[in-house]
Every structure is written in C-alpha cells, then in structure tokens.
Amino acid sequence: MLSERRLQVLRAIVQDYVGTEEPVGSKALTERHNLGVSPATVRNDMAALEDEGYIAQPHTSAGRIPTDKGYRLFVDKLAGVKPMTAPERRAIQNFLDGAVDLDDVVARTVRLLAQLTRQVAVVQYPSLTRSTVRHVELLSLAPARLMLVLITDTGRVEQRMVDCPAPFGETPLADLRARLNSRVAGRRFSDVPRLVEDLADAFEVEDRGTVTTVLSTLLETLVEENEERLMIGGTANLTRFGHDFPLTIRPVLEALEEQVVLLKLLGEAGDSGMIVRIGHENAYEGLNSTSVVSVGYGSGGEAVAKLGVVGPTRMDYPGTMGAVRAVARYVGQILAES
Fold this sequence. Notes:
Layout: H1 4-20, H2 26-32, H3 39-51, E1 55-56, E2 65-66, H4 68-78, H5 86-97, H6 102-117, E3 120-124, E4 133-142, E5 145-152, E6 157-163, H7 170-184, H8 192-196, H9 208-224, E7 230-233, H10 250-256, H11 259-266, E8 275-278, E9 290-297, E10 305-312, H12 317-337
Antiparallel strand pairs: 1-2, 3-7, 3-10, 4-5, 5-6, 8-9, 9-10
Helix pairs in contact: 1-3, 1-4, 2-3, 5-12, 6-12
C-alpha cells in the first residue's frame, strides 16, 4: 500500500500531466502543489512510485508521466467525479429537451458528449430485448393491406407493412388492436411470443389467417431489430491528441469503425454502473493507448443501453466521468417522459 503522501504526489503528477501535456518534475510539483515536503522528499517519493510501476520516465526527460497502473489507482482511489455546474446542467437539459424522437435524442447525445468532453462519443440505441411494449397500432391502408406500428417504452418506433391473405374489415381490426394491446402493452418484448401464441383462436375462422400474418410480422420485427445499433461522433477530436498515441492514430480510428469492438468496450447494457477501462485494460490492441468511460442509461432505474467516450489515457477523468454520468441521467429522464 502506498503512503498517503505518495498518493498525493501521484495525484499531483496526474493532474499536472493532464493539464500541461508535459512530463512532471519534482521541482514543478513542489512549486505548484502544497505537498508540505521538500523537493528531495518528493524526488524520493517519485522514485518509489516509479519502482512500483505507477509512473514512468519517457525517453531522457527529467520528468515523469503516469502509467496505466498509475491512472488506474488515480481513478479508483484519488479521483472524485467532478459534478457539473448549474449552468452546464441547464445547457445539457435544454439541448436534449429539444429532441423530437429517439434518433434525435441519440444524435443530440452524441454531439453533446463530444462537445463536453472533447473526445469521441459513443451512444448505444436502447435494445428491444431490454424494452417493453408501450403500444401496438394497426392502421388499414387498403382492404387487404395494414400498417403495424410498434412503440416501445424507450420511444423507439418501428413500422411494418402487412399484406393480408384476405380483406380485413374495420371491426375485426379494432378487435385485434384491442386484444393485442391488452396482452402485450407494458410487457417485455421477450414475453411477447408467449403472450400472443393463441390469440388467433379468439377470431372468426375467416379472419385467423390475417391475424396470424399480423402476429408473425410483429414477432419478425423483434428478431430483425435485435441487432445492437450505435452512433458515434467527435472522431475529429482525436486529432488534437496526436502526440498521445504511439507512432500513429490509425489503429484507434480503425478500432472505432468496428461496431462489435465498441459494444464490448461499452460493456453489458444491463449494467448501469460506470466503467472506466484504461489503456491495456482494453482487450482490443488498437485501443491500448486509449481510455473508455461508459455508463448505462434508461428509464425507471434500469439500464437499457450504454453511452460513453473514448479518448487518450491522458484524460481528465473526474470531468469526463462527471459529464458522462450527467448526460446519461438526462437521457434516462427524457426516455421516461417520452
């Protein structure tokens, strides 16, 4: 275990390196921070921190920089989540409140996160597998053609055309709409197949073919939309950190194009807690020079998806964690109210 003083020295090194982009020396630390000890003592503490792998000496520089291990200890033990100011919170709320639908919510969230953190923002769409049915609407377009509209509790709207095997009148259509919603509204998507399996039996023989076709379309929609979707923004922000990436930024950009990689980085959507992965903790080699901060968002206290940011390991962790958490909270409120 590190002594309290050495933890304070590590904290000061991380803060200075993140702020100045320059390796940090003992003289600068004693001048900038009230550590209460001499430069010689700070040098001894820095030597101990280096021996234990928390800081390293880049090239021939006299200063030191944090390692992945040092950042990890900083995040776990030393960094509080920096709260957003009242004006920042109002700005977040006002920006997100103007969204007109789920796609707009996700697009605005990506832009907002990228602007707040000046890093790459990644937002996962709410998954239907973790959503519930708010309403199923059935509209008659022609005697033998319907439109099925599926609305989720997260504001997601899916539309499908249904070609019926025979004309379907307004009376059986209204009956099907009512019976369908009475069974599935407010229920998990995973429960829907079981809830509607015998629904066709409640209708006249001549209407059962159409009812079965509508139900098949509904179930196909769940399967089709089961694939996870992401939106990413702010990739250009990485160009500001060119010197933070060894040799080239290309492996990072290539990794960001892989949706499967990003989904793994964000973590399981059902986990609402904040995850911070630093450097080599990211399994994908191309992202070993980056850190990922992610958190779940959703309505009713349950996470239905993840959002987060990707940036260099030389990151303002308290500020980034605060921004990610605040945005996730507001997005969850919007979904709950939509």
